[in-house]
């Protein structure tokens, strides 16, 4: 099966440059032998894809990873989208026990204290739920764009994701942010109002800030870490040296990393 999916991924990757995003989604819905899942972050790229999937009534599952730390505006976009299209965006939540254990160990905002803490938070709130969201699927659709960051330059329109054992397709890979903005404006697609306030790439509230004019698009994500680490673990395996903040030397995890009592 995986050999068949790998061959199909290569075929679709060669075909995608000649197709519109809507045609790419139709092709995936028609050609993929199994379930296709689109994971939306509710950002502007993903809203365009949700619009196309719902408007074209495609048999593609739309899911979002609710980390529990999203901006209030993201929940508003989620609700507005369901009301506009009359379709449900399925929620996937972190494992309750793992979440409790992590928060009780490293604190509610431990992600600021050490890169290991931040990665653990992304692991519990995003990466493990993503695995469940994609379980049993044959294809995964994302809203990744080539020009979002240097980390994403080497990606493809369609590839085979060996980690999840499925086709990974990026139907907006060659679209620019401005093209997507114009499309969503023309089609009256609900978008997060934070985009207009300088939040170009929107993730969890504690880990997202507005960017200044001229700053890279993803400079507002995990801005206290080095640029090479600014990924959530869903798409890129991060590694390298990082900046640590307020960490007691010698301790890299657990309550002991904090100075003084934690409660
Ligand atoms: S983006 Fe921030 S709050 Fe969200 S899962 Fe990752 S570390 Fe946790």
From TrEMBL:
It is an enzyme of class 1 (oxidoreductase). Pathway: Sulfur metabolism; hydrogen sulfide biosynthesis; sulfite from sulfate. Binds 1 [4Fe-4S] cluster per subunit. It comes from the Bacteria. Residues 36-210 form the Phosphoadenosine phosphosulphate reductase domain. Pfam families: PAPS_reduct. One of its GO terms (molecular function) is phosphoadenylyl-sulfate reductase (thioredoxin) activity. It catalyses: [thioredoxin]-disulfide + sulfite + AMP + 2 H(+) = adenosine 5'-phosphosulfate + [thioredoxin]-dithiol. The keyword Cell division does not apply. It is found in: Cytoplasm. GO terms for cellular component: cytoplasm. The keyword Zinc does not apply. InterPro entries: APS_reductase, PAPS/APS_Rdtase, PAPS_reduct_dom, Rossmann-like_a/b/a_fold. Catalyzes the formation of sulfite from adenosine 5'-phosphosulfate (APS) using thioredoxin as an electron donor. This is Adenosine 5'-phosphosulfate reductase. The lineage of its organism: Bacteria, Pseudomonadati, Pseudomonadota, Alphaproteobacteria, Hyphomicrobiales. The gene is cysH.
